[in-house]
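Quick illustration for those who missed Monday's session on complexes.
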Amino acid sequence: MLILGIDTSCDDTAASVVEDGVRVLSNVVSSQNELHKKYGGIVPELASRRHIEMIVPVVDEAMSKAGVDFSDISAIAVCHGPGLIGSLLVGVCFAKSLSYTKKIPMVAVNHLEGHISSIFLEESAPDFPFLALVVSGGHTSIYRVDGYGTYTELGRTRDDAAGEAFDKVAKLLGFGYPGGPVMDKIASQGDPEAIHFPQAKLSGSLDFSFSGLKTAVLNYTKKIPDSKKEDVAASFQKAVIEDLVNKTLDAAQQEGIKRVTLSGGVSANSALRRRIKEKAAEKGIEVYLPSIQLSTDNGAMIASAGFQHFKKGKLADFSLNPKPYLPLGSADR
Ligand code: KG4
Ligand code: ZN
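Prediction with zinc ion bound:
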């Protein structure tokens, strides 16, 4: 069964054709990095306009790369939130039009459920239950996943998302936008032990807080303007990673679960991938990571999650509206 997945939640226009929720036939992502670079961050109005320009060519390319026709598609899965309203609107309106004109059923997918589902596109996927750390530019949460569509949030960030912290620190170090991938590279040339940046202590909780860390980096660079940027990047990155890894593994132990997954843009970070594998192995916990390509936003993860909704008959109708705020596990899906 073929599902066409569409994601326009933020600054990437993405479409993909996936077979049976697990096999990626095509995965096309049109990045807007160049467009937003000169502003040092995403400009929502520009993002929305670029999605309008790109949605047709991106979907066309996904269909032709998969070598399929609309008559082969069983359902269109579209991300309807959370995300930027003007961006989400483009994907949702496009999916509705396509569904109407081609008479293909439509399913609505939560972006975070999409990120968690990216792991099912890999050769080795975890059995249920597992713990999922979703760590992206807009979100940082730990979920207990007991089955498709069954999520319990165990912890979340109380302020900035980890990706947002990467982006803001990259900006203040003068590395430009988007910050995560550059920080990853620069940090690998620095000493993570050079500077001790404090981690937020939220005792007894699996919540995160990254805004204090960002301020600590800012204060440090003001105090020592000629500090080695590679060391600042590496030390900042280490503080974020230690917190993400420790809380995720603590959550696994607390729940008595031996399997954890990472997903979302920050899970592409090479040091994070290394560290979680290392520490999990010490505790006898298995780690499942999506490929780098499927860590950041893509349509395949939406198609994978959408396949499960479609199998359960959870179709969306034309009253579907995008929702900028859409907690995972809420009834309104
Ligand atoms: O999942 P994603 O593509 O979009 C959202 O749903 O937010 O995540 C984007 C975030 C950005 O903040 C970006 O800087 C971060 O993921 N990111 C990284 C890396 N690659 C992307 N952060 C750290 N290291 C990376 N290699
Ligand atoms: Zn995302």
